[in-house]
Amino acid sequence: MALARRARRALTVLVALALASVGVYIAALVLNRSDKPIVEGCTAPLGSATQQLATDQAANASLITAIAVRRGLPPRAATIALATAMQESKLRNISYGHADSLGLFQQRPSQGWGTQAQIMDPVFATNAFYDGLVKIPGYESLPITDAAQEVQRSGYPQAYAQHEDMGRAFASALTGQSQAALTCTLRPPDAAGDPEEVRSELTRAYGAMQATAAGKTLAVPASGATGWSIAQWAVANAKQLAITKVDFSGHTWLRDGNKGWTDSAAPDGTVTITVAPTP
Q: What does the pLDDT average to over 13-25?
């Protein structure tokens, strides 16, 4: 019996030592890991500061701004629209709000903005906002609060001003006035991308355009500010469209590594958008 007890004690000590060794090994792995969790999001600079949006907010901002570009409106119009949508809905296409308010701009069917289905269509809602904005004489020179309030008739008109810096930063990048400015930090895509889906979303935002799909790339003829608008639209939509690379005018944005825009041999005249292969 004594021999059996000594054997059990010895076994217990060995198991304890083994468990302790495993614990030390796991702790060392955790402490020595160089990888940090990736916090997804998109940024655009304004002076020495950086403005931030979540990836879904950035995608909505890119649509709102692309429609301004499509209509030939100045960047100030996009700034006003982005600040307004941020205040009204946090730049999210929500199906609820005060009374019967809906969508990106919290427009109300009862006030003649359209049907519920129309207002919940971001393209319709954005065009409805711009339709109201362009009727305001001299809106480009008005303070954000005044221009937005003329369209929205909000009970809190001064609230729009707090989003002006965000609006200016993202409008400047997404209209192409700022080059290689908007970037997104993203995890690797978990599904393959489809160039035809990218083409469809581009058409929805900018209208019909010539674009050539080949393999996993979509080549979009564009130059200057329009090219930079499209290139940074692609970055803003990289998460939902599984975009991994954007090339334009001497710069490349790579999703892998999250280093933002880097210098490259990419030519002007064509925005090349690459999507993920099958994982």
A: 45
CA nearest to 128, candidates 96, 75, 177, 85: 85
pLDDT for 21-63, tens place per residue? Answer: 444 444 443 444 445 788 999 999 999 999 999 999 999 999 9
Q: Which tokens is 74 given?
A: 């100045």
CA distance 117 to 123: 12
CA dist., res. 159 & res. 168, Å (int): 16
The span from the CA of 166 to the CA of 51, in Å, is 6
One-letter identity of residue 209: M
Enumerate the H helices of 38-143 as residue ranges: 55-70, 75-89, 116-119, 122-133
Q: Kindly report the length of the chain.
A: 279
**What is the DSSP secondary structure assignment for residue 194, as one 8-state letter?**
-
Q: Which of left, alpha, beta for 135 (phi over 0: left; psi -120 to 50: alpha)?
A: alpha
What is the three-class DSSP state of 74? coil
Give yes or no for a contact between 82 and 104, defined as CB atoms under 8 angstroms apart. no
**Percent helix, percent strand, percent coil in the chain, to nearest 5:** 50, 15, 35
Q: Round to whole Å and give the CA distance between 130 and 176.
A: 19
pLDDT, position 7: 46
Minimal CA–CA distance to 273: which of 204, 195, 172, 200? 195
CB atoms within 10 A of CB 74: 14
What is the rounded CA–CA span in Å between residue 68 and residue 65? 5
* CA of residue 238 relative to chain centroid, distance: 8
Q: Where are the domains of the chain?
A: 41-174, 183-275
Cross-sheet strand order for the sheet of 269-275: 212-214, 217-222, 269-275, 243-248, 251-254, 261-263
Instruction: Please state, in angstroms and rounded to a whole number, the distance separating the CA atoms of residues 200 and 122.
Output: 15
Query: Chain centroid to CA 268: how far?
Result: 24
